[in-house]
Hints:
By secondary structure, this protein is α+β, with helices and mostly antiparallel strands. The protein has 17 helices and 22 strands. The strands form seven sheets. Strands 12-11-15-16-18-17 form a six-stranded mixed β-sheet, covered by helices on one side. A four-stranded mixed β-sheet has the order 1-2-4-3. A three-stranded antiparallel β-sheet has the order 5-6-7. Helix 7 (181-187) crosses helix 11 and helix 9 (256-269) runs antiparallel to helix 12 (333-344). The protein is globular and about 90 Å long. The model is unreliable at 376-406 (pLDDT under 50).
Amino acid sequence: MENQCIEYKSxxxxxxxxxLCGFANAGGGVLYIGKNDSGETVGxxxxxKLLEELPNKIRSTMGMVADVSLHSENDKDFIKVEITPYPxxxxxxxxxxxxxxxxxxxxxxxxxxxxxxxxxxxxxxSVPVPYLKAEDFDRDAFRLFREKAISSGRLTKEDVDISDExxxxxxxxxxxxxxxxxxxxxxxxxxxxxxxxxxxxxxxxRTESDLVYxxxxxxxxxxxxxxxxxxxxxxxxKGCIRYEGLQRIDEYPVPKGALREAILNAxxxxxxxTGIPIQIKIYDNKIxxxxxxxxxxxxxxxxxxxxxxxxxxxxxxxxxFFRSGQIEAWGRGFDRIKxxxxxxxTEEPVFKSKGCDISTTFHWDNIEFExxxxxxxxxxxxxxxxxxxxxxxxxxxxxxxxxxxxxNTExNTExNTEKLTNNQxxxxxxxxxxxxxxxxELSKIVGITPDNVxxxxxxxxxxGIIRREGADKGGKWIVTTx
Length: 482
């Protein structure tokens, strides 16, 4: 089967020299002549002639030396052309090609610029920009960096108690007295003056075509994640407000930690050369983050989602965010998102990659969340079984005492069932707090074995106190409040 390193051709055409160029500019590869798309040998005509001509054609058109050999299978000849990766860019008739997956792509524009830089051992964010000095920058981003770096413990007060220019030097953002692109993006108050797409667009949509309102976040990208999170959770998301005693608790369908990590990934690893901003679309039941990004060579989305070492697209931007304490340097961003969602009992986001577009989508069950929100705000549901009015709230002329939904559920459960053991009460209390809690987690909290947890859960189910909705994995517990 064809893949990143293998290509089959049943006959030879000189146009296939492009494929050899693409292999040389990527990780190398093998072109078989005389095999069909399934890898079956169909034979090739004039094999001996090709064996003599191909090395000369490859050398004269691209300046490469290739290993060309003749083989036979089932009395049918085929030719194997093996290309090693070249440290310098290889062109074919003045055009550059790159093998990506099982396809061969011609590089143009920003993609070609990026490729040339990588071949020189540079990255896009490392390119120096002339006529710009530290005194041209606003102080806010420097102050933010110093505060975050100290509070996170990544740097000490002595480390950052230096001039702004020395700070640039310590972060490797200066080269031959010129500031790098990464310095402008992370610290300048108007990075869009140099890079058009260096901002974030946020919009609230009823449908794909019905935009209700929108905002833009500008300024240094170092400050963007906090600004975006504050705006989304104060203006765009509907929260579920409840009370525990006198304390007000705000709950949202997407955990802040997970969404912030996703936004940080987009800001740090995006391709700023495209001129297209990060776009965040918010709907009644989902948030979608669209980002222009380039996966590391020979990677697909599965490589990104599984265990991997850190390979940032913008290493100097990533280093600055790491020193400020906002990200880690171990390639664990996606793991942290999934862990945060699991901890809050919400769905994991869906990650997709298509070409240079990377998207992260957080989904939630809007009906279920509306029920929780209504209950927490004192709205009786269809079954008339959950009421939670804040203290001194007047309904039908009667003063009510503040009780949270969880407290009501606990009280109703104990008042309307047979006497429960202390362990069973603890199990119910923790299920009310987290409907997605597992037996293993209950075991650690309650202090009994997982088998004992399962025995007690079985008894509670038989008594009609709790029930399970959905599958063992992905389902949730419901506490009856009769």
